[in-house]
C-alpha cells in the first residue's frame, strides 16, 4: 500500500495521509478546499491600487479646475492639456465627464463666449473664428451655432471700425492702390471675406475724402 501511495505521489496524484487512502465515496480534501480568495498582502495591494487610482482622478480634476479658472476651455483643450501632464486616458475621460455633468465643461457655451470676445474685442471675422474653434476641438454643430450670432451687418460694422483706425496710421505718401491693398490685406488676415473687405475699404477710403492721388494723413 505504501508503495502504491508513493507511486501516486510521484505521478502527481492527490496528496493524502499516507496512513490511509480515501474511500471512493469520501470527498477529495484537495478538491473540496475552496479557491484561495487572496492573501492579506494581495488585498492590501488591491486597496493601494484603488487608492492610487482615486488619487490620480483627484489630481487630474484639480489640474482641470486650475485651467478653467484662467479661462473657459473646450473639452478637447482640457483633454489635450491633461494628457500632456501624463494622466491616463481613462482618468481624463472620467474627470471630464464629471465636470461636464456639473456644467463646468460646455462646448456650446464655450463657443459662444469665444465668438463674442474674439469678434467684439479682437475684431476677428467669421472665417478666422471658425478656424479657431476648429483648432479648439469644438464640433461643427456648436461652432455653427456660435458663429450664427455674428450677422453680416455685425461683420461690416466691425470691419469698418478696424479700417477707420488703420487709416489714421497709414504712412504719408502712400498711393491709393497700395493703401487699399494694405487695408484689404489687414481685414483678410483677421478673417474677413474679400468682398466685405474691399467694399468696406473702398467706402471708408473715399468717405475720408481721398482722391486717386491723395494719401491718408499721418
Describe the protein in words:
With 218 residues, the protein is an all-alpha fold. Helices cover 66% and strands 0% of the residues. It has helices at 2-10, 29-32, 40-70, 75-84, 89-101, 107-120, 126-135, 140-147, 152-167, 176-189, 194-207. The longest helix is centred in the N-terminal third of the chain and has 31 residues, at 40-70.
Structural Rg:
36 Å
* Cα end-to-end separation: 118 Å
Gross geometry: elongated
Report the sheet-strand fraction. Answer: under 5%
Short description:
The protein is an all-alpha fold and about 220 residues long. It contains 11 helices and no strands. The protein is elongated.
List its traits.
mainly alpha; 11 helices; 66% helix; elongated; disordered N terminus; disordered C terminus
List the helices and strands and how they pair.
Blueprint: H1 2-10, H2 29-32, H3 40-70, H4 75-84, H5 89-101, H6 107-120, H7 126-135, H8 140-147, H9 152-167, H10 176-189, H11 194-207
Amino acid at each position: 500500500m505504501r508503495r502504491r501511495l508513493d507511486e501516486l505521489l510521484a505521478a502527481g496524484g492527490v496528496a493524502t495521509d499516507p496512513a490511509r487512502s480515501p474511500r471512493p465515496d469520501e470527498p477529495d480534501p484537495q478538491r473540496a478546499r475552496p479557491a484561495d480568495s487572496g492573501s492579506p498582502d494581495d488585498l492590501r495591494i488591491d486597496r493601494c491600487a484603488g487608492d492610487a487610482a482615486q488619487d490620480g482622478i483627484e489630481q487630474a480634476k484639480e489640474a482641470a479646475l486650475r485651467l478653467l479658472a484662467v479661462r473657459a476651455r473646450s473639452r478637447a483643450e482640457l483633454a489635450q492639456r491633461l494628457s500632456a501632464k501624463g494622466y491616463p486616458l481613462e482618468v481624463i475621460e472620467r474627470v471630464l465627464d464629471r465636470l461636464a455633468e456639473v456644467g463646468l465643461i460646455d462646448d456650446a457655451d464655450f463657443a459662444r463666449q469665444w465668438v463674442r470676445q474674439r469678434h467684439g474685442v479682437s475684431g476677428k471675422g467669421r472665417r478666422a473664428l471658425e478656424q479657431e474653434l476648429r483648432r479648439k476641438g469644438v464640433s461643427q454643430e456648436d461652432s455653427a451655432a456660435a458663429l450664427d450670432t455674428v450677422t453680416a451687418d455685425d461683420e461690416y460694422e466691425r470691419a469698418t471700425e478696424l479700417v477707420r483706425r488703420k487709416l489714421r496710421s497709414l504712412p504719408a505718401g502712400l498711393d491709393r492702390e497700395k493703401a487699399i491693398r494694405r487695408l484689404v490685406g489687414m481685414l483678410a488676415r483677421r478673417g474677413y471675406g474679400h468682398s466685405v473687405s474691399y467694399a468696406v475699404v473702398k467706402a471708408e477710403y473715399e468717405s475720408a475724402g481721398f482722391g486717386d492721388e491723395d494719401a491718408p494723413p499721418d
